[in-house]
Amino acid sequence: MITIHADEVPARPWPNGGGRTRELVAGPRGGHWRWRLSLADLDADGPFSALPGVRRWFALVEGDAIELAFADRVLALQAGDPPLVFDGGTPPLCRVHGGRARALNLMLRDLDGCLAGQPTGAALQALYEPASRTLLWDLDEAPPAAAGVWVGIEAGDLRWR
Q1: 128 or 42, which is more confident?
Q2: Omega of the bond prior to 28 within 30 degrees of 0, cis?
Q3: Which of 65-74, 81-90, 134-143 comes out lowest in average pLDDT?
Q4: Mapping DSSP to helix (H, G, I), strand (E, B) and coil, where does residue 27 land?
Q5: What string of H, E and C letters represents the secondary structure of the chain?
Q6: Distances in Å between the alpha carbon of 19 and those of 22, 42, 48, 72, 117?
Q7: pLDDT in tens, 39-72
Q8: Taking 60 as the threshold, does the pLDDT of residue 17 lie above it?
Q9: Of 18, 41, 66, 116, which sees the most CB atoms within 10 A?
């Protein structure tokens, strides 16, 4: 099992200045990613980047409530709410209520997967624990009394250890 402590992963600033991203894991290695799991620190209101061909899951794991404004709807999200899923090619405008929030992002290109509130049973799975800011990757079995956001990626040709 791989353990990644999010606070030990360098944060990269966003081009729009509204936050920072920590890429926790991505694959395949050595090329353009087909799947990427990252942790975003949202410090200010602003647009998401457009990622055509990418399916995104977005789960608020810490901090203040946010709103994601799409062309046809506005969705409110608080820490602990189920993850939102949307097309990365139609990015929303994000409003951060209160100043700061942290979100887990799963992005997939031509793969199936999800973020969920419980173990997924997928070929690749991980658990992000907000309390310890730790990602436990490729679990053989669920840790006892695990609390957090589960990640699952279905792909027979991907395996990461």
Answers
A1: 42
A2: yes
A3: 134-143
A4: strand
A5: CEEEEHHHCCCEECCCCCEEEEEEEEECCCCCCCEEEEEEEECCCEECCCCCCCEEEEEEEEECCEEEECCCCEEEECCCCCCEEEECCCCCEEEECCCCEEEEEEEECCCEEEEECCCCCCCEEEEEECCCCEEEECCCCCCCCCCCEEEEEECCCCCCC
A6: 10, 5, 10, 25, 25
A7: 999 999 999 989 999 999 998 888 889 999 999 9
A8: yes
A9: 66
At residue 116, the pLDDT reads: 67
Q: Copy the structure tokens of residue 12.
A: 């990269």
* Global pTM value: 0.78
Radius of gyration of the chain (CA): 15
